[in-house]
Amino acid sequence: MTRRTRPPLALLVPAAVAALIALLPFVHLADRAFDEGLSRVWDEVWQRRTLELLLRSAALTITVTAACVVIGTAAAWLVVRSDLPGRRTLRVALLLPLAVPSYLSAFAWVSWRPELAGFTGAVLVLTCTSYPYVMLPTMAALARLDPAHDEVARSLGRGTWAVVRTVTLPQLRTSVSAGALLVALYVLSDFGAVAAMRYEVFTWVIYGAYRAGFDPTRAAILSSMLVMVALALVIAEDRTRGAATARVGAGTSRPAIPVRLGHARWPAFVAMATVVGAALAFPLWRIGVWAVSFDGADAVRRPLLAPLATTVGLGLAAAAVTVLLAIPVGVLAARHRSVAVRAIERSTFVAHALPGIVVAISLVFVGTRLLRPIYLETPLLVLGYVVLFLPLAVAAVRTSVEQSSARAEEVARSLGDPAWKVALRVTTPAALPGIAAGAAMVMLATMKELPVTLILRPTGTDTMATMLWRFTSVSDYGDAAPYALGLVLFAALPTAVLTAQHARDTHRRPTS
Question: Pick from 27, 216, 443, 464: CA 20 to 30 A from residue 136's CA?
Fold first, then answer.
């Protein structure tokens, strides 16, 4: 249950630091957007072309988010609560598309069927790469829900699907809304998929304006509009978010008995297999097709090990720093809904809607003026990842804390423990599944990130993503194949480990 007590200073200070870091890009945006006066901002906002971009971006965001909510929620329920055939394997396979960069998936589809370019192709690719953002927190929530709620409803004569619709789904509102928000912000900020699919939205125009260098003021104004849209989404998610439902009775909840699907068992399996095929198997197949034209001797000579080591190292560093910053924000957002906490949480989310190139260029501005010692060094690159992916960790931590009981924290406080000790010894251990999920998502996103890496990386540093882009951007798919395959395989490892741990936690019967 959400608490109304005053936020403890021991959590509020580090959370405020996290919010300030997330807001760093806006130093540059504010400087650039108003460089030519307020009249230029007003003229740009009210252009017909700007309205068209807003409508196109909104259509793409709404469509993809709705599709991801349906697929992600259904997939999570099927692999956690039902007797779906092969559900343990599907649990891993359905999350592996997190390892596929959106631009790689887009190149795979458009190189196979060029006529997919446009709105349809962009929706297909972004849905395939984004639905795990809904599925992962929903799985974690389902694993923690007390099955007693469902059993009570069934004892009153409700059927399986009525129980799912009226009892289970309302308890998942917090997790689903958090995942939907991440999907919406990701779609708003994505450049690779819409560029490959030639679907013109805000990010494409912003990227063109920055790259050409002829109108950076317009790019900053359009970026600021994206921030306003993102802020509206964050506020809407906050207002529609439901409180987590407490378990029935005392003690430790037991695992739920899988719901029998009956005649729907195999159609559900086919549906989930189709999702895996489109989101994971198809891109891998296209990589294999590209590899046919690749010279094996050249593959041995390619510098694969160094980019791979750099990619993994940056992913681990970004995950560690981001999670440390996200924990106080997530705990406060779950337990203390004050005005200050709401402002901090929203501040960590809005930058996620900015295209990577905007974040990168903004940090170049900040780095050359305020952070000169780390300019074009690894710490500034990691800082860029933190700004982009902090919402992934915050949402995961917040959802996990909301799903955990506040009773143990109340007992610890009644014994005189200060707030920081309660958060460290009670709240954080209870939220470990969410923290692990957030770390995995940040690491995966970091391994795939391109614009920030290209602009902020130290001189001479390459990652798997930059090497992949170097070849795919000129349609040299044969040379890109080893980097594409390596990136997908190694980015899949954290996802596989995370889902395997989740499976063990779900099926382990607790002891009393």
Answer: 464
Question: What tens digit of pLDDT does each residue of 306-323 get?
Answer: 888 899 899 999 999 999
Contacts of 190 (CB under 8 A, 6+ apart): 102, 126, 203, 355
State the chain's maximal CA–CA distance in angstroms: 68
For the chain, percent of residues with pLDDT exceeding 70: 78
For residues 467 and 483, is the Cβ–Cβ distance under 8 A?
yes
Q: In whole angstroms, what is the distance from residue 448 CA to residue 99 CA?
A: 8
Q: By the 8 A CB rule, do 60 and 189 touch?
A: no
Where do the domains of the chain lie? Answer: 9-243+255-507
Question: Structure tokens of 502?
Answer: 């989740």
* pLDDT band with cut points at 50, 70 and 90 for residue 500: low
Q: Backbone phi, then psi, for 27, in 5-degree steps?
A: -60, -45
Residue 124 · residue 278 · CB < 8 Å: yes
Eight-state DSSP code of residue 351: G
Residue appearing with tokens 């004569």: 157
Contact, 216 vs 32, CB < 8 A?
Answer: yes
**DSSP assignment of 73-141, as one string?**
HHHHHHHHHB--TTHHHHHHHTTGGGGS-HHHHHHHHHHH-GGGTTHHHHHHHHHHHHTHHHHHHHHHH
How do residues 262-286 score in pLDDT, each as one tens digit?
A: 888 899 999 999 999 999 999 999 8
Does pLDDT of 480 surpass 90? no
CATH superfamily of domain region 9-243+255-507: MetI-like (1.10.3720.10)
